[in-house]
Write a structure and sequence with these properties.
The protein has no helices and eleven strands. By secondary structure, the protein is an all-beta fold. Strands 2, 4, 5, 6, 9, 10 and 11 form a seven-stranded mixed sheet that branches. It has a four-stranded antiparallel sheet with strand order 1-3-8-7, with no helix packed on it.
Length: about 120
């Protein structure tokens, strides 16, 4: 079992910044690809970004590319999502997730954090 504990989030005005953190338990953090997803009220869960096991490769959705930055510190068992130039449409509950396999699909993310609210309001 892998436990993921998230922190960060909150209320911010458009154009502002927030940084989300996700800390994993255990000693095998470096074996997991990590992803971030979000879900707005009344909408389906949406892919945001992912990062490879060693942090050498990242992928972002078109909606956040150029504004969000995903990074990881394997020595601290932590992944970060830096969110800049926030927009009202970024408002959602954000989830981190761990992928223990080499398969890239969303179904391969077996472990999930508790979620944290990000609200962008003008």
């Amino acid at each position: 079992q892998v436990q993921l504990v998230q922190s960060g989030g909150g209320l911010v005005q458009p154009g502002g910044s927030l940084r989300l953190s996700c800390v994993a338990s255990g000693r095998s953090f470096s074996a997991y690809g990590m992803g971030w997803f979000r879900q707005a009220p009344g909408k389906e869960r949406e892919f945001v970004a992912r990062i490879s096991r060693g942090g050498g490769s990242t992928t972002y959705s078109d909606s956040v590319k150029g504004r969000f930055t995903l990074s990881r510190d394997n020595a601290k068992n932590t992944v970060y999502l830096q969110m800049n130039s926030l927009k009202v449409e970024d408002t959602a509950v954000y989830y981190c997730a761990a992928n223990p396999s080499s398969a890239p699909g969303v179904g391969s993310y077996l472990y999930w954090g508790q979620g944290t609210q990000v609200t962008v309001s003008s």
